[in-house]
Amino acid sequence: MSEREHVRVAVIGSGFGGLGAAVRLRREGITDFVVLERAGSVGGTWRDNSYPGCACDVPSHLYSFSFAPNPRWPRNFSGQPHIRAYLEHVADTFGLRPHLRFHAEVEHARWDGDALRWEIETARGPLTADVLVSATGPLSDPKIPDVPGLATFPGKVFHSARWDHDYDLRGKRVAMIGTGASAIQIVPAIQPEVGRLSLFQRTPAWVLPRADRKITGLERWLHATVPATRAARRGILWGIRELQVSAFTKRPNELGLVEAVGRAHMRLAVKDPALRAKLTPDYRIGCKRILLSNSYYPALTKPNVDVIAAGLREVDGATLIGSDGSRTEADAIVFGTGFHVTDMPIAERVTGADGITLAERWKDGMESLRGGSADGFPNFLTLIGPNTGLGNSSMILMIESQLNYLADYLHQLDVLGGEIALDARPEAVAAWSDHMQRRMRRTVWTTGGCDSWYLDANGRNTTAWPGTTAEFRRETRRVDLAEYALLRPPAGRRTPAPAARTEEAAV
């Protein structure tokens, strides 16, 4: 990049959020933008999570952009390679390659209140932008717990999102830490080849059957030649999930019938009463993320698998000590312990108008107006920000709603004219946050009796959206200027002309 390249919009991240933003910008006629990606290819979490068995738990025809339907999904629930290939296809089809800056990790971004622009330092050099969009996503930075003695472990250690494909697991004693969405896919994928698999389960998960199958050639042909069939399939998948929302957000007791399905699913595969007791949750289904698998329970019954109903307390050399005092020998440790969701690292790198970082602003909990705008951070929007997560449907629906908001945000800047910035009013952010927390009181995430990654350190759910995707779309359809302060340059200040873009920067 040039010494000080200037763009209208800079987008951080090239997963679904970042690529979606890039497509929307081009469709709005905006071509003066860049997508800053720390890795060497697009894909976000679907690039980084390449562990054995990695797949999506949302149906393929719903887990894709409405403006980029894929009639050739191979399965009801697609695997990681197909989703990553889809994102590469989106980048090519919509002409996004000239806007992508690979190996350009954002090291710091600071708001310049005099120039009304963002000064951004990246691994490839500096640039400035009128508007900054963070699309890093909450599932991008792995979290490994601070386990005493872990540094003494002589074997291999890695997180599920940073899978070491060069390490041969065959015949090894492998400890899997965690029982979340990644672990239930990894366990059955590696169980046949490892010598011993020890699953450290701090809290059992609710697991339901996975209605997965190959999509037939006839179906793919029909979806490709008659687009209405593809749209109908997507619409049905969406509608079913919209009808489920009230049970999660207003009437959690209705989820008891779903729990019965989960128990029956377990009984079919697990005949040992003692093992079933270990695997049976004591909280309302939906309080933690509901998992889908037909192979997880059968894998746990195999003779080379041990389920340790305890968390990992400490490590002593090659010995793993559980919170129940159990001792397990291992050659490798795989952490399936999630991500920095309520403490996203990008927040430490963004400094707002009053000189504090977004992490400091959020030290008591994440808060953003309509999931995107934090007060004190002008012309800054977060995709998949606070209270935008879902427990039963496709996050792509939420992303597209936020893209509507982004498009109108930029439109409002154009209408207002001249050098101007929008800064969310603190009272508007507080009112929105209070509204979210009031709605959260009745949800299964609050009343279900569990401790989940939806909750922050203060026990507040700052992650999930307590409503339908249709509601969120209505709430983010337009920017309400009354919720923002309008910022102008200081009197008498003249903004220097930005540096011309170099040939290298434009490719």
From TrEMBL:
Coiled coil: none annotated. Its EC number is 1.14.13.-. Pfam families: FMO-like. GO terms for molecular function: monooxygenase activity. It is an enzyme of class 1 (oxidoreductase). InterPro entries: FAD-bind_Monooxygenase_sf (IPR051209), FAD/NAD-bd_sf (IPR036188), Flavin_mOase-like (IPR020946). It comes from the Bacteria. Keywords: FAD, Flavoprotein, Monooxygenase, Oxidoreductase. Belongs to the FAD-binding monooxygenase family. This is Flavin-containing monooxygenase. It comes from Streptomyces ramulosus. The lineage of its organism: Bacteria, Bacillati, Actinomycetota, Actinomycetes, Kitasatosporales.
